[in-house]
Write a structure and sequence with these properties.
Elements lengths: L1 H5 L2 H13 L7 H11 L5 H28 L3
Helix pairs in contact: 2-4, 3-4
């Protein structure tokens, strides 16, 4: 996952915020799709794709942070 290590944190944070919070009103898509997932209402392919598209940058940020912590060793 060298490509993820080479991706700057700042870029990944900006993408995560932009896609994770878009659209800003009435509620972010990521939040809406997560609620649908836990309610059992995430059945349409477009909704599943939407969850994947809006959630991927956040998941990548979590993975990159965990790799960084393992390499640097947080005391």
């Amino acid at each position: 996952m060298k490509w993820l290590e080479n991706l700057p944190f700042s870029t990944l944070i900006i993408i995560s915020l932009a896609l994770g919070l878009a659209p800003f009103a009435p509620e972010p898509h990521l939040w809406e799709k997560l609620k649908m997932l836990f309610d059992g209402g995430l059945t349409k392919p477009i909704d599943i794709f939407d969850l994947f598209m809006h959630g991927t940058p956040v998941i990548l940020l979590i993975i990159k942070t965990s790799i960084y912590i393992k390499k640097k060793g947080v005391n």
